[in-house]
What does this fold into?
Amino acid sequence: MNDILLEKYARLIVKTGVNIQKDQILVISSPIECAPFTRMIAEIAFKEGAKDVVVNWKDELFSKTRYLHAPEEVFEEFPQWQKEFYISYVREGAAFLSISASDPEVMKGVDPQRIVKSQKTSSTALKEYRERLMSNKNPWCVVSVPTRSWAKKVFPNLSEDEAIEKLWETIFMTVRVNTEDPVASWEKHKNNLKRRMEFLNSNRFKLLHYKNSLGTDLKIELPENHIWIGGADYTPEGLEFIANMPTEEVFTLPKKTGVNGVVVSSKPLNYNGNLIEGFSLTFRDGKIVDFNAEKGYENLKGLIETDEGSHYLGEVALVPYDSPISKSNILFFNTLFDENASCHLAIGKAYPVCIKDGENMDEEELERLGVNDSLVHEDFMIGTKDLEIIGITESGEEVHVFQNGNFAF
Ligand code: ZN
Ligand code: ZN
It folds into this structure.
């Protein structure tokens, strides 16, 4: 791949993504296959004044071996030292970068119950860490780098080398590093998202009604004082960072008990190394009361039955059908990209920052206002070319928010 673009990408992640500060620690979660890029990130971070860079190496094939052969009880225990690792760095104000790149079906053949159990154990142990990140108390950023098995899945008709090359090119396009001045391109992009946010925030919608020909007919109530956000995020100190690169969405939260109707997925969902496809969810008063899937039913069941909050939604995100990633017509089998090509919802925990003053509220208060809590937060795609969304304001006025899959304003 192009070395200049690679360097530009790494720099964009360090400067604009996590926005590393002098004497700050950067914690990176990286697949071992992405080591060369991770080292490049580390070098830039040190040059920008990072106090230290700590890498948490991940190996999905080893993880699979462990899921297949380890005794059941290891998935119920979370090592104290690992908990210490995350909690101490998060308390110290570290920035967290996560490189998301995996074979979409690596966990095929693994008992879904083991994955759910392990997920639950780690989410419970790392509650403080997750909550600090989801309230933007620490800067965090998720990006991607091609791996062989992933690239091959995205471009099955290309050779492995060509597929990797093509996936790099595509990633560069989606994160705007192929432009003359990527930082300036991001400024422009953030301003576009701002315009959408301002329209949505000024209308103070009470309800959104989704409809399309796949069979989606869903009413989502929005809590009072909800806030639409998108593009940049801010720490309490006012430092800007970008939590997802790419990002094309503006999002808020639904009222936990205010979702009714049916929603049908529009893209496969890669959930922890398994694909869930052709699924639909039925809601009554916010709760998922029925669901089915053409593929990956057991994995979907595992996700929904994780805890009480995983029966409810925690995010409502709007992405136009003609967004650049969507127009590429590529199915990435990686939520970071697929969610930014499509309107989506999330099962599970809501971002407290989506409600006025939410980051300063305790659990009871958030619950009272209809902010969902769960050990999971999993986005799934529902946008289509014919998606229509009508917004209903406090005074009962109906406003077209989406028409033919795109923003109507
Ligand atoms: Zn989202
Ligand atoms: Zn999400």
